[in-house]
Amino acid sequence: MFNLALFGPPGAGKGTQSEALIRRYDLIYISTGELLRKEIRDGTRLGQEAQAIIASGGLVSDEIIVQIIEKTITGNPGAGGFLFDGFPRTYVQAYILDGLMHNLNTSLHALVSLEVPEEESVRRLLDRGRSSGRSDDNDAVIRTRLREYRDKTLPVLAFYRERGLCHEIDGTRSVEEVGASIQSIVAHELRKRLLNVVVFGYPGSGRGSQSAALAQKYGLEFVATGRMLEEEIRRDTALGRRIKQLYENGELVPDEIVIQLIEQRLEQTRDTAKGYIFKGYPRTLVQSYILDGLLRKHGSTLNMILEIEVPMLELITRLDARSKTDRAMPYDSALPRIVRRLSEHETKTLPVIERYRKLRGVQVIDGRGSFEEVSARVSAAVEEGFRLLR
């Protein structure tokens, strides 16, 4: 879920930009004026209360406004997020929205302010008045509305600026240029909220099958370096031919090749990914630093480290059983090879897990039981990760 507030004086072009943002990011549009009119049309309790206040010449209270907004958010659980147009309008409403979003286990992720000088706003609105025939688009009314916007809204911008959420962009440029700037801000904020998971575990722990299932279940990109290398060979690319030659010579694929493939995947999916599940990478301490650097370059970071834990005797039993199926790996063919692969995990990969444990913690998942039982444990951890991102 991504929540954005779009600000700007009358005539700044918020309506035009809102339409594009709603379509592109699957957002629900929240304009307090429109929501109030809908509640009144539908004859709801809140609508009737608001109508009575308006009929008596009063202003609808923040208490009613916040209930309508909460109703809209909770009534759209599948939304990609919410776009607030012109709300919060006051410093008080900024605190109200902060508390409301906290109660709903989410937050406002960014506020974009379209900066337009007063004379430009006046010119645009006068032009609109002439073309649309709106009687309220005259010089005196326009300047009153602009003064009210400045008096009430500047403290709100300061509120979010202090929290590092306010982005001010030049609203005098073309619609396309302003839209591109907003999309760049949104893309940057979204990358901060990717759920990036590394799944560790000894060979035979089920980390591959569990990772693939998680990716499919939650719409995450599954990054398995072994598969990526094999795909290059299958497609007979220049890189694939080089990888094949390394395999045939019994050599290890150097990190520079793996980096290319991972970075390519990150770039290809940067606008669509909800996050990434890494399996089989990083295997070494050096690779753990590489992955951190790659994610940071793309404006993201690792959020979760999972380690599927299975007793050693059961691992050997599983690998031996797997050697007799079509899912057998090259190292499954004999007990000495199995032991050597398990030992390699201990010497190379356990130090990586220990590094992550010190940096951000590692969630240990009990890998015993049926696939479905383990999947339920892993899914619970991932769902908690998504909840924390909100």
Short recap of the structure:
The protein has 390 residues and is α/β, with parallel strands linked by helices. The protein has helices spanning 14-25, 32-42, 45-55, 62-74, 91-103, 118-132, 139-162, 175-192, 207-218, 225-235, 238-248, 255-268, 285-297, 312-322, 335-359, 371-389, and strands at residues 2-7, 27-30, 81-85, 110-115, 166-170, 195-201, 221-224, 275-279, 304-309, 363-366. The strands form two sheets. The chain has a five-stranded parallel β-sheet, sandwiched between helices. Strands 7-8-6-9-10 form a five-stranded parallel β-sheet, with helices on both faces.
Task: State the main characteristics.
Rossmann fold; alpha/beta; 5-stranded parallel beta sheet; about 15% strand; about 400 residues; elongated
The CATH topology of the largest domain: Rossmann fold
Total strand count, please? 10
Strand numbers in spatial order across the main sheet: 2-3-1-4-5
CATH superfamily of the largest domain: P-loop containing nucleotide triphosphate hydrolases
- Which CATH class of the largest domain applies here? Alpha Beta
Give the helix level as a range of percent.
Answer: 55-70%
